[in-house]
Amino acid sequence: MTDQFKRVVERTVQQIEGNGQEKDDLYEELMIHLEMSKEQHMKEGLSEKEAEIKAMEAFGDEVSVGEQIQQAMFPYRKEMMMLLAVGSILFTSGVYLAQLFVEGDAYMLWLVLSMSVSTSLFIFSIQSVAFLNRRLWMNSLLLIHIAV
Amino acid sequence: MVDKEMMKGSIDLVLLSLISQRDLYGYEITRILKHLSDDTYEMSEGTLYSALKRLERKGWIESYWYDTEIGRRKYYRLTEKGGEELKRKQENWKMVESLVQKSSEELT
After folding, report:
1. Do A59 and B45 touch (CB under 8 A)?
2. Whole-prediction pTM value?
3. Domain that holds residue A82
4. Which positions in chain A have a beta carbon within 8 angstroms of at least one beta carbon in chain B?
């Protein structure tokens, strides 16, 4: 049954963008918390199963717990990425329009490419960390972004 | 029941005050708060651990693992910077408290 604790805590830790050490630490810390909470409920007379359910109820929604901790560990990261993405979209449109009016001709391919990169950046920044391994995608997108 | 919205502004002060007295681990903190509030306040895990991480990031507390007879625990202790912050927050709290008190007295 501790498997259920493991699943809950794993999902929580998935919301964090920290390094391996930070994640392992948090995983262990939260597991201990749940175990102790369960033990306390058992001391108060609940069965093992009831105690586990009680402990998980108190824990609440693991994704929102993880997001709260992520925000505390890395504040403004989400906002910064969104700002960058929006700025990039505006910049792309600006450059494209300027080229169109000044030179009467513009690179359609570049517009499409730059727009799609910026837009994906934006989409990833509003998603939670767990979504499709956000960190990896974010980093690759940032690199592509610089190149474009 | 303790009003969670009102509690929000004081969480840092409460945690720093507790940790200043002795090193504590997360679960222990929720137990103490429950006891001190006569079972009217249970701090959720999300609130507790995000607050602890925030205080740690600000350098007010630091954590270390410690082996007890019943298993490993992650303890938090107050730093020097945290002590100064605690003092500042306590003074601030006194001002708020006094203002609330005076506001409820008769206006002359």
Report:
1. yes
2. 0.80
3. 77-147
4. 25-26, 28-30, 32-33, 36-37, 40, 58-60, 64-65, 68-69, 71-73
